Amino acid sequence: MLTESQKAKLAEYKNAAAASSPAKERLAKLFDDGIYTEFDSTVKAGVVTAYGYVDGSPVYAYSQDKNVNSGAVGKQHADKICKILDLASRNGIPVVGVFDSDGAVISDGAETLAAYSEILAWTNNLSGVVPQIAVVAGTCIGSAALIAASADIVVASKDAEMYLTAGEGKNGAAAAELGTVSVLTENDDEAIKSARKLLSMLPANNLSSAPEFEFSVSSKSAEGKAADIAEAIADEGSIVELSEKFGKASYTAIATVGGSAVGIAATNKTADKLTSEDSAKLARFVRTCDAFSIPVVTVIDTEGFETNDNIRDLAKLANAYAEATTLKISVVTGKAYGSAMVALGTANADMTFAYPDAVISPLAPVTAVEFLWHDKLKGAADVKAERTKLAADYAETEASAFAAAEKNCVDEIITSDEARAKVVSVLELMAGKRLNKRLPKKHSNMPF
Predict the structure, then answer these.
(1) Low-confidence ranges of the chain (pLDDT < 50)
(2) Which of 170, 217, 222, 306 has the highest CB neighbour number within 10 Å of its CB?
(3) Which pLDDT does position 427 carry in this prediction?
(4) Count of CB atoms within 10 A of residue 53's CB?
(5) 40, exposed or middle or buried, with CB in 10 Å at 0-12, 13-18, 19+?
(6) Bridge pairing between strands 36-39 and 47-54
């Protein structure tokens, strides 16, 4: 029998556990039916840690609690988060971190730095093992911003704050333009909804298969700008675009195709050449997909890279594609010139398709004419007009998709109306792809 003192303590404990806070409300919105089990509820350290289900699959989460010491990070705060990350590593379960804290427990001095370091070490140790999604719902500054940015996907409210140094005042929208935020939403409720949708599409860990869904077929034709082609290839209503505000000449999205999760990476024909930002965006996306064996469909229509950009950044993109062992499908829908065609992984893609009017060339046709057909310009009354005509002829002959197919550089020529069906057929046929053999090494030395 419990004593009166024990009964009182139990009642106090249950009341404290049931007490509402913004952190708990966010967790309730994350988990199915608002139901979750809290860990260490008696440890009042400015963070609530819990587990529950999202679309029927288990998920661990932590949500910083501004009602307790402004959500400041100290040793106990870090201990609670690291316990969640440890459990995630042992059980292969995704993690969501909801960030809203005014900073650190400054009075703890060096102990606070150690606390941040421990969380960051665990976060990076888990990288590529289980999906990690950071939801920036309020203030995320200093070392906390480093931790959030280390997640696989960062979702943020447009009015949330995310920066390193006090006084910078960068909100979620500004962080999205810098490429730190993957998905920008109107408010934190929408941010949590986005996190739920992404979690439902991703595999539980790097050894699990992605979930499968019922789907509706899009009626669109796979032509036009990158977003239109992506919508035509993907199952209707399944697309979640990532890093929309960063790298405007490229497009990245998680979607389902034929009911299975796929990453769609594309160059945007309505934009300029690829920049260092586009290289970073595409490389990060391909590595994220590859970590969890999510197939990557690459849609290519670009004249290449900006010539004044850092070659190191472009090499980073080439490295990401070359190292990726996940299923890779390339679809050349328009221009594919020079190093862009090489860097975007067509050489080691599992299947490469091309549209009949695609132009695949080591050089832009106008430049190729100067090198290869310069003699044909001699005696022309209007050299500029003749060069343009010859460039069109070169694109139709030497640089055509048919010429590339004859040289075994393209597997099949398809029309835009066939694109979705062809991609689905490859995904089904090669769903059991084994990892490509790699030389024994700790990791490649990517040119960061």
Answers:
(1) none
(2) 222
(3) 95
(4) 13
(5) middle
(6) antiparallel
Residues written for the chain: 448
Q: What is the pLDDT at residue 279? A: 93
- The three-state (H, E, C) secondary structure of the chain, written as one string: CCCHHHHHHHHHHHHHHHCCCHHHHHHHHHCHHHCEEEECCCCCCCEEEEEEEECCEEEEEEEECCCCHHHCECHHHHHHHHHHHHHHHHHCCCEEEEECCCCECHHHCHHHHHHHHHHHHHHHHHCCCCCEEEEECCEEECHHHHHHHCCCEEEEECCCEEECCCCCCCEHHHHHHCCCCCEEECCHHHHHHHHHHHHHHCCCCCCCCCCECCCCCCCCCCCCCHHHHHHHHCCCCCCEEECCCCCCCEEEEEEEECCEEEEEEEECCCCCCECHHHHHHHHHHHHHHHHCCCCEEEEEEECCECCCCCHHHHHHHHHHHHHCCCCEEEEEEEEEEHHHHHHCCCCCCCEEEECCCCEEECCCHHHHHHHHCHHHHCCCCCHHHHHHHHHHHHHHCCCEHHHHHHCCCCCEECCHHHHHHHHHHHHHHCCCCCCCCCCCCCCCCCCC
What pLDDT digit, counting tens, does each position of 246-298 carry? Answer: 999 999 999 999 999 999 999 976 667 899 999 999 999 999 999 999 999 99
pLDDT at 167: 57
Beta bridge partners of 58: 53
